[in-house]
Amino acid sequence: MSIQTLQGLIRARKTPLALGLSPEVSQLNARVLKNFTDMYGDCPMAKSEAMRYQGCQALEAAVGRLPAVVLRAANYLRYGAMGFDVLANLTGIAKSRGFYTIVDCRTSMPDAWLEGLSGADAVTVNPYAGGDCCTVGDSHAAFAVVRTANVSASDVQNLMSGDRRLYLAVADQMTRHGAGLLVETGYSLDIKELRKRCEKAFLLLTHCDSENACYAFDDYGHGALVVDDTLQYASDYTAAVEEAVKAMKHWIHVI
Question: What is the distance between the alpha carbons of residues 42 and 76, in angstroms, rounded to a whole number?
Fold first, then answer.
C-alpha cells in the first residue's frame, strides 16, 4: 500500500492524525495491569496482555475517525516472544479495521518485517543501509528515519555534508528512492528545513504538536501525518480521539 493510499485515507477522514501505540508499562492503566498480573503473575505475559488490551481499546475508539496507526516495535519486543505476538496481533487488527498501519521498527531489512507482520502497510527503515532499505514493493511503503530526538542525535545528524547537515543530505537521498521521512524532534525549524529541501516528500511526525507540524503541510492539508502517542493512555478513548481531531483542525484543514 503506497503513500498515496495513506494520503487518500487522510482525505477521507479529514484529519492527518495517527494513533500512536508505543506503550510503556509504567503508564498503563493500573487496574488493567493488576488484572493481568493477578492472572499470570508479575511476568512478561501479564505486561504484554495489558498492552494488547489497551491497544485494542484505543483502536476501537479510533475506527472511522483516524486514518492510520503507528506501532513502535521496540516497546513490544522488550517483552520477548509474547511482546512480538501482541505487536503482530495489533498490526493485524488495525489492518482489518481499515487503518493504514505503519510499524516503526527502524530496520535495514524491511522484507523480514513485512513478511512477519502481514498487516503492515509500511515500516520505518534505517537510511544508512542505503537505497536498498527502501525496496519494499509497490504495495508497501518505507519511511526513512532521518531525524531522531535522542540526546546524542546531533553528534551524527548535524555533521556537515558539503553545504548541508547530514540529516538533510540523507533525506534527499531517501526521497529520491521514494521513501517518506520520519522526523521525531517536533521542532518547527527541523520541519521547515526538511520541507524546503524535500518539497514533495511525505513527512511522518512524532512527538510533534499541531502548531509545529503545520509547516509540513501544503495549503490543502496534504503531505504529512502527525502521530499522537497520548491517546493510548486516555481514560475515555472516544472523547480523547474527538478532542485530538478537533485540536488538529484548529491548525490544519484537509481538503
Answer: 16
